[in-house]
Amino acid sequence: MREEILRKLIDRTAKALNVDASTLNENTIVADLGLKSLEMAGIIASFEDDYDAYIKYTDFMHAKTIGEAADILVKAVG
Description:
Number of helices: 4
Strand content: under 5%
CATH architecture: Orthogonal Bundle
Radius of gyration: 11 Å
């Protein structure tokens, strides 16, 4: 499940930033991406819809890398 969530997270992040998904990976530093809070909220909401789960925004915001964010999502969606 982690690989599926990681792939979706990379794809959705790339779409939000209007960049090629191949430029992102699990070691990409989230703070370096310049995501706005509204973009982050949209990504979280999309996972909540996909997996019918609640994802704590503050937990997600503390992820240092895309991989850490994926791990938070995996825990949340169970």
